[in-house]
Recover the amino acids of this structure.
């Protein structure tokens, strides 16, 4: 297998910085090759490109399935997954927030004149990998070797690449925390303390677990989640980040969450958390990623 970007599978980081850039014009190469090559002190980075930019860059070819994020609107009730497609994504993670911050500043400086920083989020590890709602995040994530199978394209011209979905979610923590814990568990589909999946009649059809634990053609639709709590006291939420070897999985999961086939099964979590951004990217293997930057 072609060497994938190792930051995709690097787990357990205490700090994260998510940078989304819009790129001017139609460049064949981007500045910042030294940053794309240099290791991050005490951490890792992942660089990914939007479909529009992939069509311009000389060093990396767009894979089949690369596309811009399209807004999802779920009829009555105003449920929307907005599209705010960006061109370039840089994810920094590690144990040294100071080093990540300095690398983020270096990326902004290197890209000046070619790219504008459009969105910036700082994430952190909350207790035992919990979301700000208090529930463990990513309980159903693949483990060990299954992570690579789910997240990384296995063969063909784009072996080692990975499709990326990025959304910033805003939580209504006051509304969610006003619910009794038993009702919170029915919204999520897991117990709050020990993250055990609800079983049988105890599992609502519109719980978050029910709407994201889906099958297509008899096969489970799996993605590799790398999300992180983000925001401040005024805007607490989640930076939803996921990787997949098949870009269709993101669309299928969104359609299920938003109840496009059956509005009565819309994900109940949408009543307490809403996305305010949405982009798709492609993270090429290391060599093509580096080739996208000027020598």
């Amino acid at each position: 297998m072609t060497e994938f970007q190792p930051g995709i599978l690097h787990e357990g980081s205490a700090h994260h910085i998510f940078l989304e850039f819009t790129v001017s014009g139609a460049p064949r190469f981007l500045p910042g090759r030294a940053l794309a090559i240099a290791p991050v002190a005490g951490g890792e980075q992942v660089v990914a490109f939007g479909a529009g930019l992939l069509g311009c860059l000389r060093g990396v070819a767009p894979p089949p399935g690369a596309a811009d994020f399209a807004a999802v609107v779920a009829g009555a009730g105003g449920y929307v997954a907005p599209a705010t497609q960006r061109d370039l994504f840089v994810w920094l993670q590690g144990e040294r927030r100071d080093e990540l911050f300095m690398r983020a500043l270096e990326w902004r400086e290197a890209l000046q004149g070619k790219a504008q920083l459009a969105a910036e989020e700082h994430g952190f590890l909350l207790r035992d990998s919990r979301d700000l709602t208090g529930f463990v995040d990513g309980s159903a994530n693949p483990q060990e070797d299954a992570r690579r199978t789910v997240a990384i394209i296995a063969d063909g011209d784009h072996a080692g690449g990975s499709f990326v979905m990025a959304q910033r979610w805003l939580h209504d923590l006051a509304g969610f925390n006003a619910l009794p814990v038993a009702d919170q568990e029915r919204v999520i589909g897991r117990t709050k303390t020990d993250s055990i999946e609800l079983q049988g009649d105890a599992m609502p059809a519109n719980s978050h677990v029910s709407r994201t634990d889906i099958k297509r053609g008899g096969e489970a639709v799996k993605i590799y989640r790398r999300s992180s709590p983000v925001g401040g006291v005024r805007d607490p939420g989640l930076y939803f980040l996921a990787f997949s070897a098949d870009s269709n999985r993101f669309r299928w999961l969104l359609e299920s969450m938003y109840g496009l086939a059956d509005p009565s099964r819309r994900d109940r979590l949408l009543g307490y958390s809403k996305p305010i951004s949405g982009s798709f990217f492609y993270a090429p293997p290391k060599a093509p990623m580096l080739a996208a930057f000027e020598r």
About this structure: The first helix runs from residue 33 to 37. Residues 6-291 form one domain.
